[in-house]
Amino acid sequence: MFGELKKNVIDDSFTLGNDFTIPTKDDNEGKLKVVPDLNKPILEQIIISNESIVYQVWFNIYVFCCLFSSYFYAYIAAFELPQPGSFLFILDNVFEGIFYTSFFLCFIVDY
């Protein structure tokens, strides 16, 4: 019949197609147990939602580092490279680690 909604269409519209786990009832404890959805490929299961609170916190840290690192690198360019083991050397490595991690996250975040 025209205009009839099927159950899978309704389920997909509420989950937006991102149903990674299937909650099931555990008979022993009465709590919900999370079972991985084995029907999806592993690469589709590692996608991170951009609405995740963890990703949003990470993104705010990344934006702060982008703003602060420009002044930091200008200081390095004006004066000298930091000596190995100094605070500036460690801070430089922290910035680089955050930027490399954010570069990798660009490939697995869902937009």
What's the order of the H and E elements? HEEHEHHE
Terminal CA distance: 35 Å
Number of strands: 4
Order of strands across the main sheet: 1-2
Strand content: 5-15%
Helix share, percent:
40-55%
Describe the model.
By secondary structure, the protein is α+β, with helices and mostly antiparallel strands. The protein contains 4 helices and 4 strands, in the order αββαβααβ. The chain has helices at residues 7-15, 42-45, 53-78, 87-105, and strands at 21-25, 32-36, 48-49, 109-110. The strands form 2 sheets. The chain has a two-stranded antiparallel ribbon. Strand 1 (21-25) and strand 2 (32-36) form a beta hairpin. Helix 3 (53-78) packs across helix 4 (87-105). The longest helix is centred in the middle third of the chain and has 26 residues, at 53-78. It is elongated, with a radius of gyration of 22 Å. The mean pLDDT is 78.
